[in-house]
Amino acid sequence: MPTLALTEFKITHLNAPLGSEVTGLDASQAVAPEVILELKQALRDRHILIFKNQNLTDEQFLNFAFYFGSLFVPPDDIPVLASEPGVTPVVIPISNVDGGYTGTREIAFHADHHWTPYPSSGSLLYALEVPPEGGDTYWLNLNLAYETLDESTKQRIADLKLITYNPFLRDPNAPRSKYRLDKSIPLISPVFPHPLVRTHPESGKKILYLGISTEVEIVGVDPQEGAELIEQLREHLNQPRFYYQHKWSVGDIVYWDNQATLHYRQAFAPKYRRVMKRVSLAGSRPF
Ligand code: OGA
Ligand code: MN
């Protein structure tokens, strides 16, 4: 480490079911190879990393993010957050002002890009302005959620495939269904079934790969039975013992493993500004 660093580089495990805090690292500068490797290992073990006190241009933010992978680019015909026909911005404004996309309402626990053929491996979210209250983000440990299922449920779901429907192809004002029961409504997009029990591509850990409220369907299972099973799994997922609640400070970057976690955002008052930027990294086909 450079001898002139003001604070020493340190990775500290949070007293929480996931997450480590990283201090004494300036992401605007080149990072030493052994530090990158330590960060990658910490992400595998802890699922989210919280970098404190950063101050970056977009270019510096991208350069830092690309140490961990290349840019996530969705297929042209599969819209995701911030997509305009055929293009998705590289650095995505996650903001309730100035043309940002995420408003001020609560955002239910989800994994990004779950409905795409190859969801992102992770995202880095960088806080520029934060509200004095509300707008916390929670991350949930999907490996722990899987491990704490009872044995008979684990066996029952072992080989199931789940379709997660693309919320960006839905009428935002229509009532949302959490499970596709009505088969008479025609499909409006290609669907990409993924394993309900996913194996992490690097750690090999099993995760329960299911969001809390996006519309889903288990392939080949009677709709009523599928809906009941999903409801039971979602009840299990939604427990404080699985998640960490992050209260943002300006200059935080949270890097989360999108293959091991869900995230949720609290609502906040529209009178406040919450301005963040996100970069998502390419992933692979879930197995
Ligand atoms: C996201 C997201 C939540 C937040 O950027 O993918 O869900 O707290 N953000 O802004
Ligand atoms: Mn998200």
Summarize this, please?
It is built from five helices and 16 strands.
What does this structure look like?
The protein is an alpha+beta fold and 287 residues long. It has a domain of 131 residues: Double-stranded beta-helix, CATH 3.60.130. It contains five helices and 16 strands. A seven-stranded mixed β-sheet has the order 1-2-3-14-6-16-4, covered by helices on one side. Strand 2, helix 1 and strand 3 form a beta-alpha-beta unit. The longest helix is centred in the C-terminal third of the chain and has 15 residues. The model has no long low-confidence stretch (mean pLDDT 94). It binds N-oxalylglycine and manganese (II) ion.
Write the layout of secondary structure elements.
Layout: E1 10-13, E2 20-23, H1 33-46, E3 48-51, H2 58-65, E4 92-95, E5 107-110, E6 122-129, E7 137-141, H3 142-147, H4 151-157, E8 161-164, E9 194-195, E10 197-199, E11 206-208, E12 216-218, H5 223-237, E13 243-246, E14 253-257, E15 261-265, E16 275-281
Parallel strand pairs: 2-3
Antiparallel strand pairs: 1-2, 3-14, 4-16, 5-15, 6-14, 6-16, 7-13, 7-15, 8-9, 8-12, 10-11
The structure holds N-oxalylglycine and manganese (II) ion.
Strand content: 15-25%
Helical fraction equals: 10-25%
Report the principal-axis shape.
globular
The SS-based structural class is: alpha+beta
- The CATH superfamily label of the domain at 10-102 and 120-131 and 247-258 and 268-281 reads Clavaminate synthase-like
Tell me the major beta sheet: 7 strands, mixed
**What hetero molecules are in the model?**
N-oxalylglycine, manganese (II) ion
